[in-house]
């Protein structure tokens, strides 16, 4: 397990005098800490993190330091088909194609992935708010059964309020098309949307999260047991992805911080 100091998040710019070679080494060390904590960060996100911590630094310099010290992120893009869409349940049209997403709880996107352990696989179902990119529900299971998606959806419904006219988007897999799941969506007044068969780009936002999860968490750990996964995955989702990981689409804010800022802005508008 990585053992990082609290300086990763509480770094102060005054600790670095850019005119000193010694302190530039400290800067490189700190960049390394950030990349170690967030392995998917490239020079742009690292620069944004440093600026959030009070250090006004040029991205070109950060990129140069990362390149010279071999800490640039190199991620291969790859989509893996994991959906079983050969079922007799109803298919729903894609309602989010070209849709402008402008508020929380307007669109939820969902997906399932697998995580390898020593004795087989663990399956993870997630639901994200498409506006904030925040994971609002998730579930882990040793079996790829229908109850995994229902559990994730119930978690999301428990934690979110004021859900009006929300679109739920998924693939056409049996775990999302089955009666139990569709009926739960209908009871909560969701509009139902599905991707085309075998086209991950129709659900690119959920796929993007899964890629982040794999490269910044799963591939860095050799999970031996289901207990290992149950300990690490919730930590990554709740303590890293939702609350600390910067998103370029959110103005380089973490999802939770973006939602807080959005809610405050709306409160001010309503009060005026």
β-sheet strand percentage? 5-15%
Give the termini distance in whole angstroms.
Answer: 49 Å
Largest sheet: 5 strands, mixed
Radius of gyration: 20 Å
In spatial order, strands of the major sheet run 3-2-1-4-5
Q: What is the count of helical runs?
A: 10
User: Overall pLDDT, averaged?
Assistant: 85
Query: Uncertain runs with pLDDT below 50, 5 residues or more?
Result: 1-19, 76-82
Element order, helices and strands?
Answer: HHHHEEEHEHHEHHH
Helix-and-strand structural type: alpha/beta
Helicity level, as a percent range? 40-55%
Seen as an oligomer or otherwise, the chain set is: single chain
Name the shape in a single word: globular
Total strand segments: 5
Describe the protein:
With 272 residues, the chain is α/β, with parallel strands linked by helices. 42% of the residues lie in helices and 13% in strands. It is built from ten helices and five strands; from the N terminus they run ααααβββαβααβααα. A five-stranded mixed sheet has the order 3-2-1-4-5, with helices on both faces. Strand 1 and strand 2 form a beta hairpin. Helix 3 crosses helix 4 (59-68). The model is unreliable at 1-19 and 76-82 (pLDDT under 50).
């Amino acid at each position: 397990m990585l053992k990082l100091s609290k300086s990763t998040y509480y770094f102060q710019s005054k600790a670095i005098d850019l005119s000193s070679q010694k302190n530039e080494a400290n800067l490189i060390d700190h960049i390394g800490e950030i990349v170690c904590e967030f392995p998917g960060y490239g020079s742009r996100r690292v620069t944004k993190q440093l600026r959030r911590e009070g250090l006004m630094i040029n991205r070109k310099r950060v990129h140069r330091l990362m390149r010279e010290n071999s800490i640039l992120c190199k991620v291969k893009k790859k989509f893996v088909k994991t959906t079983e869409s050969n079922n007799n349940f109803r298919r729903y049209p894609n309602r989010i194609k070209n849709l402008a997403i402008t508020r929380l709880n307007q669109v939820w996107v969902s997906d399932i992935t697998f995580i390898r352990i020593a004795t087989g696989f663990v399956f993870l179902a997630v639901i994200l708010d498409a506006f904030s990119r925040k994971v609002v529900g998730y579930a882990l299971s040793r079996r790829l059964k229908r109850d995994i998606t229902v559990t994730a959806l119930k978690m999301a419904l428990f934690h979110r309020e004021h859900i009006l006219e929300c679109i739920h988007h998924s693939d056409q897999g049996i775990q999302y098309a089955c009666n139990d799941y569709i009926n739960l969506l209908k009871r909560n007044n969701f509009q139902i949307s599905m991707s085309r068969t075998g086209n991950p780009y129709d659900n690119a936002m959920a796929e993007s999260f899964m890629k982040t999860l794999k490269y910044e968490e799963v591939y860095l750990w050799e999970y031996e047991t289901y207990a290992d996964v149950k300990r690490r995955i919730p930590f990554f989702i709740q303590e890293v992805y939702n609350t600390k990981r910067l998103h370029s689409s959110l103005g380089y804010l973490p999802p939770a911080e973006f939602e807080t800022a959005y809610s405050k802005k709306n409160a001010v508008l309503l009060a005026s």
